[in-house]
Design a protein that fits this description.
alpha/beta; 370 residues; 21% helix; single chain
Length: 370
């Protein structure tokens, strides 16, 4: 009996099993909106191409990414020759940061079902997603922008100063209810609201002390982003700084976009660093959790150039976002005690101290305490 036909058949079978998916494939990931705010959908397109020298079953798996809010997708079929596939999915990341979309995996199996292998898919192009911090539509009353006001009155440009009452005006959609003047409303027969004077400032510089918990870093990124957006809408120059980073005050949407992109990458720091000297004439905001001595001394030095300096302390590491409630508040921290002892000296030097616990504004000695 001639064995060669049997050997040839076995050889062809081995080739049939081994050849599918012999060459590496390629994949390309494209993000329709590489930058944007948290919670907004981002379409992502995956394009994969590979070649099957013999008929074979293939399966393309695009794994999910929970942090991106990406469910993933998969597709399978029977093919031969050059294959090109496109998969579309939507990512909805809820947390700020820089994200890399997940890559796909390709599996190929011969038509006899004897062997399955994974075929490498080289990444030829991949775009990352830069997610900005969330921006609050309305700033809480405890963080009123009058903390930042400094300078002469202005007709419309600048910040409202609640200490400069101008009169009443008709209610407009969007006005907060707490500003309704009920007596004037009854007198005029329609809703009237209190109106305050506007004051002009040269700009605001926000310094974030990165020494703190991760939740503190996230909340300060949102707070700084919200302040920056509200100030930009009022035509003020806004700057940003933290240890190892500085962006001088600037106006316009492009400057705000750069600021939001920087806050998206903000990370907690291990060391304690003093805020650098700000540009002359701006209002400096220092955001801190522990209020270390270096930060306090840096704020005092910055007062020589800044119009106003405010230290905003968040000892619990968070500030309740608009609509949130119910987080516990504990005793005083070392930073709070340090600021309480030095409050009078700081305010005499033009450095104003504010401590926020939850969403409550805490006042020190000589004022209301909690």
């Amino acid at each position: 009996m001639n064995p060669w036909p049997a050997l040839a058949a076995l050889g062809l079978l081995a080739v049939w099993v081994a050849l599918p998916g012999l060459r590496p494939g390629r994949q390309r990931l494209r993000v329709e909106k590489p930058e944007g705010a948290a919670g907004r959908p981002r379409p992502i397109e995956l394009e994969a191409s590979f070649e099957l020298p013999l008929p074979a079953y293939w399966r393309l798996e695009w794994r999910p990414a929970p942090r991106l809010g990406l469910r993933g997708a998969s597709r399978s079929g029977l093919g031969w020759g050059r294959q090109r596939l496109r998969l579309r999915a939507t990512a909805s990341p809820l947390r700020r940061g820089l994200y890399q979309p997940p890559t796909a995996r390709l599996f190929v199996r011969d038509v006899l079902g004897l062997r399955e292998r994974e075929v490498p898919l080289a990444v030829t192009e991949s775009q990352s997603l830069l997610v900005y911090p969330r921006v609050w539509e309305q700033l809480p009353p405890e963080l009123a922008l009058t903390l930042l006001a400094e300078g002469p009155e202005s007709a419309s440009l600048g910040l409202e100063d609640a200490s400069r009452y101008r009169g009443v005006r008709p209610y407009q959609p969007g006005d907060p209810q707490r500003r309704i003047h009920w007596k004037a409303s009854a007198r005029h027969g329609r809703l009237m609201v209190r109106e305050f004077a506007w004051v002009r400032a040269t700009g605001v510089w926000i310094y974030v002390d990165t020494g703190g918990q991760e939740i503190y870093t996230d909340h300060m990124a949102e707070l700084a982003a919200s302040l920056a957006v509200h100030l930009e809408r009022r035509g003020l120059a806004v700057g940003l700084a933290w240890p190892g980073f500085s962006q001088p005050p600037a106006r316009g949407l492009e400057a705000t976009r750069r600021l939001l992109a920087a806050l998206a990458r903000l990370e907690p720091g291990n060391g304690e660093a003093a805020p650098p000297l700000p540009p002359a004439g701006v209002n400096l905001l220092v955001l801190t959790q522990r209020a270390p001595l270096q930060v306090i001394e840096g704020a005092l030095r910055a007062r020589a150039r800044a119009a106003r300096v405010h230290i905003l302390m968040f000892p619990e590491g968070f500030f309740l976002r608009p609509g949130e409630s119910g987080r516990p508040v504990w005793g005083r921290t070392d930073g709070m005690l340090r600021l309480e002892k030095q409050r009078r000296l700081l305010e005499a030097a033009g450095v104003y101290v504010h401590v926020f616990r939850g969403n409550e504004h805490v006042f020190f000695a000589g004022r209301r305490q909690r």
